[in-house]
Amino acid sequence: MRRKFEPDVLNQVYYFLKERMIYDKPSPHLCVIDFFSELHLGTKEQFQYSSPSKIHGNFGEIKIINLINVPDYSNQEQFVAWAHKILN
């Protein structure tokens, strides 16, 4: 069964992380990794950041996310649209 990640869900995760990051202020790259770790459907041990451009995890039918063309995380509309496209 294919798991869909709808834009409303992706925006909710984005807002959740934005609130949490008010205190941490990590780099945009770490924000992207946190975003996908929240969407990961498995255990923490199954989520792996294997290189600066690849994330391995369980995102329904998607198992590897390539971050080479990731847009700027601070541009929510563009980032969420990109995430929606690669996850569905």
Description of the structure:
With 88 residues, the protein is an alpha+beta fold. It has one domain. 48% of the residues lie in helices and 17% in strands. The chain has three helices and three strands, in the order ααβββα. The protein has helices spanning 7-24, 28-39, 76-87, and strands at 48-51, 54-59, 62-66. It has a three-stranded antiparallel beta sheet, with helices on one face. Helix 1 (7-24) crosses helix 2 (28-39). The longest helix has 18 residues, at 7-24. The protein is globular and about 30 Å long. The mean pLDDT is 90.
Q: Say how many strands there are.
A: 3
Low-confidence stretches: none
Strand content: 15-25%
Number of domains: 1
Shape: globular
Order of helices and strands: HHEEEH
Q: Kindly name the structural category.
A: alpha+beta
Radius of gyration: 12 Å
Give a quick precis of the structure.
The chain is an alpha+beta fold and about 90 residues long.
Essential attributes:
88 residues; alpha+beta; 3-stranded antiparallel beta sheet; 3 helices; 3 strands; 48% helix; globular
Annotate the secondary structure layout.
Layout: H1 7-24, H2 28-39, E1 48-51, E2 54-59, E3 62-66, H3 76-87
Antiparallel strand pairs: 1-2, 2-3
Helix pairs in contact: 1-2, 1-3
